[in-house]
Automatic annotation (TrEMBL):
It comes from Pipistrellus nathusii. Pfam families: LRR_1 (PF00560), LRR_4 (PF12799). This is Leucine-rich repeat-containing protein 61. It comes from the Eukaryota. Signal peptide: none annotated. Keywords: Leucine-rich repeat, Repeat. The keyword Repeat applies. The keyword Repeat applies.
Amino acid sequence: MEPQGEKSGEAEGVRITSQMLKSCSGEFALESIMLLKLRGLGLVDLGCLGECLALEWLDLSGNALTHLGPLASLRQLAVLNVANNRLTGLEPLAACENLQSLNVAGNLLATPSQLQCLAGLRGLEYLRLRDPLARLSNPLCASPSYWAVVRELLPGLKVIDSERVSGRGSEFYQLCRDLDCSLQPSSSPGPCITEAQPWVEPGYWESWPPRSSSILEEACRQFQDTVQECRDLDRQAGDCLARAEQVLSPAGTASSFVF
């Protein structure tokens, strides 16, 4: 599902107000808000959102936003989700110097050059432009080479579209991509008929004494490290969710937290 042209029930759209922000966060002052979830509210104008100077975690997905101007003042913002909107540019985010994770899947970004404004964000490690499970994408993702171009444009990224591109586990994802490419049919015109060849070399099925393979051992070790890292991340996510439920529950004494 690409960005929708007109969403149901959104005749005029909604503008963010101070009262809305205080109601959603439970805070009495905008400067005290650290987390906001404003998903699917039909927002078309960010209004006074730029006054939430302590904001670190923000979800604006599923709205009808066309610009992110007020976000330029959010210097503490670390996690931003603006998926499924109508954005054609991300320039205001160049000022969000602490941004680490950005989800812009399901917008109208047409060329990789529209991501150039993110090049100065040294802490940006996670970027999502496409979400196949949610059927969200951007026009620039139609190019088979977009993934490599984005990686070259933003070399500091560790994860693109949930695939690790650097650090532990990146070799595993690269292997999967190479396998996908090798399984794709040839794009050359006309039928391509080749002489049948044996699948394996002569003598392949003959029994040989077992031997160790340093390459295989290294691959297994990297895979185990990746699995352990996933488990650690899952545990951290569980801890964060538990704290969130505790803080946001009626019995909680605080109304915002660092995500």
